[in-house]
# Entry
Amino acid sequence: MEDSADLRDRCRMGLVTNLLNPKAAIMYLALIPQFVDQNAGCVVAQGFQLGTVQIAVSLTVNAGIIVAAGSIAVFLRRRPSWMRWQRWATGTLLGAVGVKLALDAPTPATAG
# Structure
């Protein structure tokens, strides 16, 4: 089991990484204004409300993914044969995607 200091450091690193990620700010600046109604009251309050709803939904979805991933990890750790099958299936699917991409590669454009 991880000690609490290591877990705390990992959580802090993840938080800082997400807070410094410009993609989130760009997404909010690009999407939220589309859903703000200038006739419905304070535009800034509407923006914060929409942002809060989006964050709540994201937290709920991510929490569900974390719980599911933890349960799957415990299941796979207890059953090594399932882990081998999962690795084989994943490798096969990734290889198939690679072959498909190689075969479907577009032909280069020619000048003329």
Q: What stands out?
A: The helical segments are 4-19, 22-31, 43-78, 80-103. The two ends are 65 Å apart (CA to CA).
